Amino acid sequence: MDTKKSDEGEAHESGIKTKIVGILAIAGLIAMVVLVGTAAANGEAEIYGSRVLWDYEMQHDFNTTDDLYGWGDFGDYSYTEDVMPCPAGCGGRVYVVEHRETWTNGDPLYDVSSDGYETLAWDGGNFFEMAWPTPLTPGTYDLILDLDVSGHLGVWTDIPNPYLGLETITDPRWEIVVTNGPTPTPTPTPPPSQTTGNRIESITAGFITSLVTIDCHGTVTEVANLEETHSTQNISDSNLTYDEYVEQIMYDEKLSAIDGITQYTKDFTYDGTNAPNLAVERRLGYLGDPTSLISWVDSTENVGMSIVTEGDNGPIGGMESRCPWAEGACIPASAELVAAGSQLSNVELVTAQSKTFVQTIDSPRLHHEIDARGNDAWGYWMDEAHTEGPYGIGTVSAGIDVSVQKGHGCINGSYPLAGTQTYNELITASGYWQFYKEMTYEAPIPTVPLPRTYPVFFLPA
After folding, report:
1. Residue 31: phi, psi to the nearest 5?
2. Is 108 contained in some domain?
3. What is the pLDDT of residues 119-176, one digit of tens each?
4. Which CATH number characterizes residue 123's domain?
5. Is residue 21 domain-shared with residue 56, that is, in the same domain?
6. Which of 334, 53, 329, 312 is nearest to 195 (CA)?
7. CA distance linking residue 193 with residue 201, whole number of Å
8. CA count, 13 A, side-chain hemisphere, 121
9. Residue 123 DSSP one-character state
10. Are strands 17-27 and 8-12 parallel, antiparallel or unpaired?
11. Which of 39, 114, 29 is nearest to 76 (CA)?
12. Is 128 inside any structural domain?
């Protein structure tokens, strides 16, 4: 069967010299919880009703035009590992019987479905079986799993367990109500202990690479935009479904250099299936023409990462997933919205380098850094001995905005808010400057106290 992440500032505000160095690291809030499951957690047998084969819903209300399937688990006591009474695993029978508010040990079971009770073998301990094909008859019924391990077939059983494990062996029941009214179209919902998707296996789109090299005396313009959104489920609908992640990467940049000497390179890679999903490195050298009244360069770069998840308790992937504390880890519902960027404005002289990395699959991370200063060959130097400098001339800025909300637990439809986090920062230097700013957002792997440690540095593709 199928079983299913100091600023230290030194500033001379006279405009003569400004040197700013900043490093920011933010770790996302993580709510650590313990998943409360059903039979997989407590060992008892269980049975539930469903209208659609392999749809693990826990449905009580049925229409006469529905099919009735029974699914569940035979319980730990139905497998006694090479000793009696269930050396190879015991199965049972699935009955549909008239509903009773109270059942007593030994009450007989009379199946009222059109095809009688179903006899099931162990087959791994889980089952999903047609119990009553359409049409159903209006009424209230009990769906009962009559366990072979009890030794009392054909009657409802609640007896002391003579074997190891739980104290009692009890035939599980699930109440069913059949009416003539319309039944909503079912949305497939996996059981609490299973998953239909996870961050590692997000289906992302395409591979894009772009390499730009420019050496120009005159005017240069360049514009680039990326917006990529993907989901582990159906991206076209307006609702999150169970275990669904919706993740988005946004990137835009614009370069405008007028009447000067410009040297520029850009290495851009988007990879939908490997981390980092986005890697961009830009290098810019600019020297304005002193004979021009409009000679300067403007450059803006923005990057964003948005992750919204309904919650998941599936595998996290990689070596960490083999850790006993990470196996089946609860990843609570969350919303992580992060943006960073940098800007050069009305700059007459600069040598700058920026690096941008984003990954949404695996352990989410966003990183942006900029290093901007003058040029060793062209200046600007504050003294004749060239001991102070070289400095860029103009205005340079960099900043980051973070907004995080984390839920508690992995129960479908229940989203208690466990914590929030906001951070915003903007640094600007005008005049003569050397400027370095590095910004990183990193979300640790849920229930594991450390973020993914490898790699320390991302390599451009």
Report:
1. -95, 115
2. yes
3. 999 988 899 999 999 999 999 999 999 999 888 999 999 999 888 778 899 999 999 9
4. 2.60.40.10
5. no
6. 312
7. 18
8. 5
9. T
10. antiparallel
11. 39
12. yes
Q: Are residues 252 and 323 in the same domain?
A: yes
Counting Cα atoms < 13 Å in the Cβ hemisphere of 38 gives 19
Q: In the chain, how many domains are there?
A: 2
Q: Identify which of 345, 260, 262 has the alpha carbon closest to the alpha carbon of residue 300.
A: 345
User: Same structural domain for residues 121 and 263?
Assistant: no
CB atoms < 10 A from the CB of 15, how many?
A: 11
Stretch among 27-31, 59-63, 154-158, 245-249 having the lowest mean pLDDT: 27-31
Our CA dihedral for 54, 56, 59, 64, rounded to 10 degrees, sits at -10
Residue 454 domain flag: no
Is residue 448 in a domain? no
Judgement on whether residues 27 and 101 belong to the same structural domain of the protein: no
DSSP state of 40: H
Q: Which helix (H) or strand (E) holds 437?
A: strand 417-442
Burial 52-72 (b: 16+ CB within 10 A, else e): eeebbbebeebbeebbbbbbb
Measured distance CA(342)–CA(382) in Å, rounded: 25
Domain carrying residue 299: 8-35+196-442
Q: Specify the pairing of strand 158-160 against strand 139-147.
A: unpaired
Q: Based on the domain organization, do 155 and 210 belong to the same domain? A: no
Helix or strand or coil: residue 83? coil
Among candidate residues 176, 187, 115, 118, the one with its CA nearest the CA of residue 146: 118
